[in-house]
Amino acid sequence: EIVLTQSPATLSLSPGERATLSCRASQSVSSYLTWYQQKPGQAPRLLIYDASNRATGIPARFSGSGSGTDFTLTISSLEPEDFAVYYCQQRSNWPIYTFGQGTKLEIK
Amino acid sequence: EVQLVESGGGLVQPGGSLRLSCAASGFTFSSYWMSWVRQAPGKGLEWVADIKVDGSEIYYADSVKGRFTISRDNAKNSLYLQMNSLRAEDTALYYCATEWDLHLDHWGQGTLVTVSS
């Protein structure tokens, strides 16, 4: 089973700052890495798929990069609505989906 | 607009059963693989099961294999999850979601299942 490890567990930043979230896979997932955003009381929302492709309607300040085992989600300039929990996910080792444990992005 | 509406959650005793439903609208349901994903209170996301467009392929997480059954009715645009032999650790918010290319692109709001005596 491929394990996804996200870091940091919590990230405290201010609006306008740049956020960098990491997801590391225990073995290569090629570019099949997805990022979701979840706000309190809401369902997860698809942000980035295939490591670097923004989903429909996702602002350009969100970007994803990486391949193999190391991936990064970057938010270039934080807006108040960006404070949430972010999860990475893979299904490279078909058929099992696995998620990272999440990174909570909180207001400093 | 894609809409997924889960129902059927509730309080059930350990060892009991529950059937969840997910009503889909706003897209061609019969063209999408579908998944169930759960989230225990205050915890992260856990994929539970998924089903191919015609039901010919089905996969489960090890944690639910042999106890849960996923199914679909394309004529009714509905997805189901039959949950048997429920345990306290099955307590969670259960989401249905559409799948596309190894990711989950639309999610419902979830239905809460609580397993407790």
Structure description:
Chain A has strands at residues 4-7, 10-13, 19-25, 33-38, 45-49, 53-54, 62-67, 70-75, 85-90, 98-99, 103-107. With 108 residues, chain A is mainly beta. In chain A, the strands form two sheets. In chain A, strands 2, 4, 5, 6, 9, 10 and 11 form a seven-stranded mixed sheet that branches. Chain A has a four-stranded antiparallel sheet with strand order 1-3-8-7, with no helix packed on it. By secondary structure, chain B is mainly β. In chain B, 0% of the residues lie in helices and 54% in strands. Chain B contains no helices and eleven strands. The termini of chain B are far apart. The A-B interface holds A 32, 34, 36, 38, 42-46, 49-50, 55, 87, 89-92, 95-102 and B 35, 37, 44-47, 50, 59, 61, 95, 101-110.
Secondary-structure blueprint:
The complex is a heterodimer of chains A (108) and B (117).
Chain A: E1 4-7, E2 10-13, E3 19-25, E4 33-38, E5 45-49, E6 53-54, E7 62-67, E8 70-75, E9 85-90, E10 98-99, E11 103-107
Chain B: E1 3-7, E2 10-12, E3 18-25, E4 34-39, E5 45-51, E6 58-60, E7 68-73, E8 78-83, E9 92-100, E10 103-107, E11 111-115
Parallel strand pairs in B: 2-11
Antiparallel strand pairs in B: 1-3, 3-8, 4-5, 4-9, 5-6, 7-8, 9-10, 9-11
Summary, kept brief:
Chain A is built from no helices and eleven strands. With 108 residues, chain A is mainly β. The mean pLDDT of chain B is 97.
Number of strands of chain A: 11
Query: Counting H and I runs of at least 4 residues, what is the number of helices of chain B?
Result: 0
Number of helices of chain A: 0
SS-based class of chain A: mainly beta
Work out the largest interface and the residue count of each chain: A-B, 25 and 20 residues
> What can be said about the biggest beta sheet of chain A?
7 strands, mixed
| Element-level helix/strand string of chain A | EEEEEEEEEEE
Average pLDDT number of chain B: 97
Per DSSP, what share of the residues of chain B sits in E-state strands of 2 or more residues? over 45%
Major sheet of chain B: 7 strands, mixed
